[in-house]
Write a structure and sequence with these properties.
By secondary structure, chain A is mostly beta strands. Chain A has no helices and 11 strands. In chain A, a hairpin with a 2-residue loop joins strand 5 and strand 6. Chain B is mainly β. In chain B, the strands form 3 sheets. In chain B, strands 2, 5, 6, 10, 11 and 12 form a 6-stranded mixed sheet that branches. A 4-stranded antiparallel sheet of chain B has the order 3-9-8-7, with no helix packed on it. A two-stranded antiparallel ribbon of chain B has the order 1-4. The chains are: A mainly beta, B mainly beta.
Chain lengths: 114, 116
């Protein structure tokens, strides 16, 4: 079945450590996204990518970095510069960046930093 | 100002009854799209239904329909014949056609509880 795989489901890190969240899709979608979700909040866009080797900052990119070396993969690194990294992270993809193409989401990674 | 407003933090409905989840939006674009997503406790976001601003008919997908009132800038989700499995968070989202057309902007969600 086609879909988006995020791993791991739960991640625990000490403050000051960088951590990388994995996101893989086999939907052959061009566009990929990372969103952050905090309790009682909607989703906020961290980074997005329209094609391989190209990505753009979203609304809350500070303290995060991404890469898009392959169409299928869009890993997110949460760096030590991110002041409040504890959150639920959702990766998504869509056929195209604009228009009526819905986003398809993975199951998310819950990151806890202590 | 918020782009997407969901005024109901929580809603309760009896099994087999219909329920309406409210969503109002703010945009100056003429062309835009509205999406509804369901998020069960497992965390995955599930796409439910889409309405384009130029669509003349209200969108429907199975038990889901969208009550689109363009002049009032509202896009309410109607779930008919509620089931226990419908208990989840529901998010309304919008994609505009202007400078930020690359992203979906989400509301804060409504937690729906279906009672047996």
């Amino acid at each position: 079945d086609g879909g988006i795989t995020q791993s791991p489901k739960y991640l625990f890190r000490k403050e000051g450590q960088n951590v990388t969240l994995s996101c893989e899709q086999n939907l052959n979608h061009d566009a990929m996204y990372w969103y952050r979700q905090d309790p009682g909040q909607g989703l906020r866009l961290i980074y997005y990518s329209q094609i391989v080797n190209d990505f753009q900052k979203g609304d809350i990119a500070e303290g995060y970095s991404v890469s898009r070396e392959k169409k299928e993969s869009f890993p997110l690194t949460v760096t030590s510069a991110q002041k409040n990294p504890t959150a639920f992270y959702l990766c998504a993809s869509s056929r195209q960046l604009t228009g009526n193409s819905p986003l398809h989401f993975g199951n998310g990674t819950r990151l806890t930093v202590t | 100002a918020q782009k997407i407003t969901q005024t109901q933090p929580g809603m309760f409905v009896q099994e087999k009854e219909a329920v309406t989840l409210d969503c109002t939006y703010d945009t100056s674009d003429q062309s835009y799209g509205l999406f509804w997503y369901k998020q069960p406790s497992s965390g995955e976001m599930i796409f439910l239904i889409y309405q384009g601003s130029y669509d003349e008919q209200n969108a429907t997908e199975g038990r889901y329909s969208l009550n689109f009132q363009k002049a009032r800038k509202s896009a309410n989700l109607v779930i008919s014949a509620s089931q226990l499995g419908d208990s989840a968070m529901y998010f309304c989202a919008m994609r505009e056609s202007g400078g930020s057309n690359y992203k979906l902007t989400f509301g804060k969600g409504t937690l729906l509880t279906v009672n047996p």
